[in-house]
C-alpha cells in the first residue's frame, strides 16, 4: 500500500472508529421518491447526454496497451482511460470484443490495476477488451449531487455510457460486458450492475462498500470525500435529509435488480488475524465486514445466487485483491460470454 493510501486508510478508519458505533444497522429499504426529486438527476443526465465525448489524447505504451484522454461532457473534464487489447485483436479486424471494466479504489488512479497486478499478462490469452477508467480523486464512480448543481460531475454516465461509445467506435467493442472493482470500485461494480440492469453480464466486488447506508458507512464515505478536500455533502447530500438519494445509489437497496447478473463478492475480516504489517488496511477491512455479510444475506433473501468468499484476516490492499480477481475470473468470463 502506498503512503497516500496508508494515510487515507488511517483517516477513514479513525473517522469510523470515532463514531463509537458498530456496523450492525438494520437493513435499509429505498424510500419513496417525489417526482421532482427523481426528475432532477434525470434532467441533468439527459442534458449532458446530448453532448459527445471526444478523444483528445492517445499514447501507446506497447502493442496492446494505450492510454486515452477523453473529454467527458458528463464529468465536465478530460479524463484518462487505459485500454488493453486482446492478443488476437489485430489479426481479427472484423471481430467485436466483449468488454471488461476494472475500477480503481479510493485515492488511487486508473493505472492501479496494471501497476499492482499482472492483469495484462493474465488476460493475454482471453478474448476480451479491458478498460480501466478514471473515477476521479475519490475513486467513487457515481453521479455526484453537489447540492443539485447541473454541473455536478457524473462519473457513472462517463463510465457506463460515454466510454462505451468510444470503445465501440475505436476498438470494436461488442455488447457483452462485465465489471469488477476494488474498494470504492467494488461499490461501483455492484452499483452499476444494479442501476443498469442487464447491461453487465457479471459484476465482482473485492472489499467493496455494498450497503452505503449501513451504520458507519456514511462516515466512511464522507471521510473519503473529505480526504480529497471536497465537501462531504457534495457526494449524495445529507444522509439524513437526502436519504432517498443515498438509497438510489445503494447496492443493498437495489439488490433485487441484480437478478440475472453473475456475482462474485469477497471480503476479509481484517483484525484479529489481519496483516499487522499493514495495520491501517487491516482495520479498514474489518470495518466493512458486517455490511458485506448483510448484503449477501439480502441476496439470499431475494433468491439471487452469488459466489461469495469471506476470509479471515486480510487487509484492504492489493495482495488480497490480486488473488480474488483471479478467483472471480470464471464468473466474469461467463458474464462476458467467454465460457
From TrEMBL:
Keywords: Signal. SUPFAM superfamilies: alpha/beta-Hydrolases. Transmembrane segments: none annotated. GO terms for molecular function: acyltransferase activity, transferring groups other than amino-acyl groups. The keyword Signal applies. It holds the Pfam family Esterase. It comes from the Bacteria. Residues 1-30 form the signal peptide. PANTHER family: DIACYLGLYCEROL ACYLTRANSFERASE_MYCOLYLTRANSFERASE AG85A, ENTEROCHELIN ESTERASE-RELATED. This is Esterase. It comes from Streptomyces dioscori.
Amino acid at each position: 500500500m502506498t503512503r497516500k493510501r496508508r494515510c487515507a486508510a488511517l483517516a477513514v478508519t479513525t473517522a469510523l472508529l470515532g463514531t463509537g458505533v458498530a456496523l450492525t444497522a438494520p437493513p435499509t429499504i429505498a424510500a419513496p421518491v417525489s417526482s421532482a426529486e427523481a426528475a432532477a438527476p434525470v434532467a441533468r443526465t439527459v442534458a449532458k447526454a446530448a453532448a459527445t465525448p471526444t478523444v483528445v489524447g492517445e499514447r501507446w505504451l506497447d502493442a496492446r496497451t494505450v492510454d486515452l484522454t477523453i473529454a467527458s461532457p458528463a464529468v465536465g473534464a478530460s479524463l484518462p482511460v487505459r485500454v488493453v487489447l486482446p492478443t488476437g485483436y489485430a489479426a481479427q479486424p472484423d471481430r467485436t470484443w466483449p468488454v471488461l471494466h476494472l475500477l480503481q479504489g479510493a485515492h488511487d488512479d486508473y493505472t492501479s490495476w496494471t501497476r499492482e497486478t499482472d492483469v495484462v499478462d493474465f488476460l493475454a490469452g482471453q478474448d476480451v477488451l479491458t478498460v480501466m477508467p478514471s473515477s476521479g480523486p475519490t475513486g467513487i464512480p457515481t453521479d455526484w449531487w453537489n447540492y443539485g448543481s447541473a454541473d455536478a460531475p457524473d462519473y457513472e454516465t462517463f463510465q457506463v455510457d460515454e466510454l462505451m461509445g468510444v470503445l465501440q467506435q475505436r476498438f470494436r467493442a461488442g455488447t457483452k460486458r462485465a465489471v469488477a472493482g476494488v474498494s470504492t470500485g467494488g461499490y461501483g461494480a455492484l452499483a452499476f450492475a444494479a442501476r443498469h440492469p442487464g447491461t453487465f453480464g457479471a459484476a465482482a466486488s473485492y472489499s467493496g462498500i455494498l450497503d452505503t447506508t449501513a451504520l458507519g458507512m456514511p462516515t466512511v464515505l464522507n471521510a473519503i470525500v473529505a480526504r480529497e478536500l471536497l465537501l462531504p455533502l457534495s457526494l449524495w447530500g445529507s444522509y439524513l435529509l437526502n436519504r432517498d438519494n443515498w438509497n438510489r445509489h445503494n447496492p443493498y437497496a437495489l439488490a433485487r435488480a441484480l437478478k440475472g447478473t453473475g456475482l462474485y463478492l469477497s471480503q476479509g475480516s481484517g483484525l484479529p488475524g489481519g496483516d499487522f504489517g499493514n495495520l491501517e488496511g487491516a482495520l479498514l477491512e474489518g470495518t466493512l465486514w458486517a455490511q458485506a455479510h448483510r448484503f449477501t444475506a439480502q441476496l439470499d433473501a431475494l433468491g439471487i445466487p452469488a459466489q461469495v468468499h469471506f476470509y479471515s484476516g486480510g487487509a484492504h490492499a492489493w495482495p488480497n485483491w490480486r488473488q480474488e480477481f483471479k478467483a472471480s475470473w470464471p464468473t466474469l468470463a461467463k458474464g462476458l460470454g467467454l465460457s
